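ERR on first pass: missing label on line 2. Operator R.T. fixed the label and resubmitted. Corrected input:
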Amino acid sequence: MTPDLLEQGAERVAAHEALVAARGRHTESGGREAGFGRPVEAGQVDVVHGRILYLDDVSVSFDGFKAINKLSLDIAPGELRCIIGPNGAGKTTMMDIITGKTRPDEGKVFFGSTIDLLRYREAEIAGLGIGRKFQKPTVFEQLTVFENLELALKTHKGVRASMFFRLDSAQSDRLAEVLHTIHLAAQVTQSAGTLSHGQKQWLEIGMLLMQDPKLLLLDEPVAGMTDEETARTAELFLSLKGRHSLMVVEHDMSFIRTISDIVTVLCDGAVLAQGTLDQVQADERVIEVYLGR
Amino acid sequence: MTTDSNLSPLRLPRPAPLLSRGGWAAFLAALVAVCAAAPLLNLVVPEGQLLHLSDYAVALLGKIMCYAIVALAMDLIWGYTGILSLGHGLFFALGGYVMGMYLMRQIGRDGNYKSDLPDFMVFLDWKTLPWHWALSDSFAATLILIVLVPGLVAAVFGFFAFRSRIKGVYFSIITQAMTFAAMLLFFRNETGFGGNNGFTDFKRILGQPIATPGMRMTLFVLTGLTLLGFYLMARWLIRSKFGRVLQAIRDAESRVMFSGYNPLPYKLTIWTLSAVMCGVAGALYVPQVGIINPSEMSTAASIEMAVWAAVGGRATLVGPVLGAFLVNGAKSWLTVTAPEFWLYFLGALFIAVTLFLPDGVVGLVKRFRKGDASVEEKTS
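pass 2 clean. output:
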């Protein structure tokens, strides 16, 4: 027991007492007291409180530069949230934190109400149901389109399971379905390295779909796509909305206009504004950061 | 999800067979060559006849087959997983030393000093066997240790290296340093491995004299069967999803992690397996060449192993086996005809392969075939 631990304990007691005093107020969970009659299942995402992703006061700095500065953000199940912001606003760093690639200096990151993402590593987080598409399309170039999708398939991912893995018919159907969705059925035996940039983006999205994640983080998914491909992507995302939660980082405003309900504007590692696209575009602070200071 | 109401029937690729029909034919041919043709031509066909396979050739081919196993192991870890190890000489030597210890004990009292202890221990005035020689009398224990010692060293080293996410050239340098450190350790007389002379002068194995044509052939056939067995095993691994995960780790490790795979057990499995293969190769090598000393752990030895794989063609299983035969064939020929040029040749070969043949000999063959095919397409 060190003095600062004692102090922290005292702080927690004080916080708890304050909470008890405030009890009875109407909350999102219907004023219900937490902890009664609702067993928590390990590894299961608990969205009873209406939030699938919850970031609270997250900060991270690299060599003194605050990439994320007291960022708080939450996403509802089934929501399609667009994130915009100037370069260096911390959009990619935020995704790094959620997926376990970067550890924040402080703050909380929860998946549902019970899963503390800061306790897990990248692969475990992916297994919990968070899929991520990188800014630069990242596919396995030496493998075929089919093999890329097969690797991403949601199944046991241990060494032994992989050695004896065989695609069953339900999985084959799922794979064929995804191949059609991403319009790569004709390229199924082609190696991924030979695809065009837009097709690689699609393949990576297809790999996310194979993982069947609850939450998809998509970093600039339509960069390098033709207008037609962009339109198809928008259509795909809108069809995913509701069953999956999506967080889309994009610079393409017309694409965002097509798909967005709520847009969050990040700037200097914190939320600057939030609302519909029209609302945030009318916001003076947003105009300021986008049009230069 | 946009599901088209009329999904056109899509044929998904089926899993590749273990070996193609041609592959099985070649495999069986190799099996016959090793198990029937070689013994027949060496032992039955009398010396002086055109078809007679000389003892020298048997010894050379047996040695090269050990190297081919190493090249195959190198290919699994470097070619397929993208982890360049410059420390495989260590695992090869560990397997060799375990076997060597057994062979030293088999000498019994036939050594120069007519003692129960190996000669070098008498020379050092040791009265009892050191503790790490305790199991060296038992052949069964030796067989187990041949797998266990390199496997354990690799597993412990690999666990810490991969957990710390050491990659690329840093990993190569650390493996090199580890091998060098081990060589210095084995050079010392106090460690009880015969110092810089290592082990030699073997007399018998399993009570049978070791230097007879029959025993030489037995070891040769055993080596050939091991090589073919390892080849099949490697082929099975590579065409499983496990093998594709390895290649995925090589191409985009972060994507592998975000697809829900933890790369650590994958890397560790293939790394340890690769080390064990090297250990087995070393154990087969020692009774055939009759000596093991710390030079097997030298920097050059480990680099040569990488050269075999690179010359043959990385990420093709046949390539490195072929590479081991080509490079070592050239080596044994050149070191006889022009010994001073061998190292220049090796250096030039590595540079040439890196510059002009990134996919090795197998890549060259493929390129020619493809060239022919495209020419045919144009003309037809």
